[in-house]
């Protein structure tokens, strides 16, 4: 392993948590009990957990200090006003409505704006956004540019939306579109960023058609960092100013604070429209809580307020994105194919290329997550046929998404260079003998977000 692939961490470690090793036999038993679904594994039995970067950040000493100073008043807590001020400063919208996590922000927004026959376009919807739309019998449409699906195209902004498609779509269906979403960075498309030029164009189109434009802003700081490094004219801008500029083109945002607010739980909706904000707050009271806490404790609001400021520290963002790119460089050496370029928060391995002997209907991505865990105790997540495949209710046949990926999401400030070196070595070992990995079939599945609970069996 080349340590030079990795950046020096701009922090030192003040508290540690032990991680236990398991034997291969133990892991095999755990897999069988979990129905070969890594979501069903006890975390204690996982050595390196790359299931998600969501809610898995290490909080800083200052965030923990905020936890102790949280104001737990039911209404009007000091911690809420601090949080509201930080969000307003960064995002620039008038109303700030906390929720317990990102999908709750999506739910209160979509329950308020979606009608019968609504359609919501995005670059690519994340699974919870899509589910929150589809569960209300509305339609979620992806309008990413074609390159978003090309794993080999090395381009700076593969998260961009195809704005000619958006224009044509709104011409035809504008009356049915209550909001246009934009996911930054584009988690379901390789964690790729969206350019400011694209954001500006989307905004102009939405304004022309009188449709509100909202960000799914979970990874806004990583997106802003890529704009600074890759988009002409912004090299000298601070990431904070770039973020502010991004949001200046929109009407609001939903955010899962579990990513770029560096906390373990939290989210919010922020927006400008007073009437819509009032309706969302009414909805919030039914399902989440009073609008100054929205499903969170005062201490959570303190930790989010602090995390939102820390995430804009450019030495942190440089380390963060270099760490992910460093893992990519090691995989290049090991000839493990992945979606290029490396994403902001994750590497997305091209599972169908790594395991060419497993056909799509035998879930090669899922099979890779099983193999990685069985061989090395590493947990990753499939973003392919298991997550996004759809069964035709009449024929029972599966339609598969364009890409069959396994995401190695890197928790923020948690793992060191040697942990990631071990991950690269483990994948390299699978790449040397791919024929040892078996395909799977689904034996049990739920109608929505099936990947969380589906059970599989291996096919010999
Ligand atoms: C792009 C995107 N949107 C929304 C969400 C949902 O956030 P949460 O898990 O906090 O509900 C996620 C979570 O991973 C995400 O990546």
Task: Give every kind of bound small molecule, once each.
Answer: pyridoxal-5'-phosphate
Q: What proportion of the residues is helical, as a percent range?
A: 25-40%
Secondary-structure class: alpha/beta
Q: Approximately how much beta-strand content do the residues carry?
A: 5-15%
Please state the CA-atom Rg, rounded to the nearest Å: 21 Å
C-alpha geometry: globular
- Individual helix count: 16
Order of the strands making up the biggest sheet: 2-8-7-6-5
Number of strands: 16
Kindly report how far apart the N and C termini lie: 34 Å
Taking the sheet with the most strands, its summary is: 5 strands, mixed
Report mean pLDDT, rounded to a whole number: 96
Low-pLDDT stretches: none
Detailed description of the structure:
With 460 residues, the chain is α/β, with parallel strands linked by helices. The chain has helices spanning 24-33, 61-69, 78-91, 102-113, 127-134, 163-173, 196-208, 220-230, 239-248, 274-287, 298-310, 314-333, 351-354, 364-376, 385-388, 417-432; strands at 48-49, 95-99, 119-122, 139-142, 180-183, 213-216, 252-256, 267-271, 346-350, 378-379, 381-383, 390-391, 398-399, 405-409, 440-444, 455-458. Strand 3 (119-122), helix 5 (127-134) and strand 4 (139-142) form a beta-alpha-beta unit. Helix 8 packs across helix 9 (239-248). The mean pLDDT is 96. The structure holds pyridoxal-5'-phosphate. The site of pyridoxal-5'-phosphate has 14 residues, from helix 4 and helix 5.
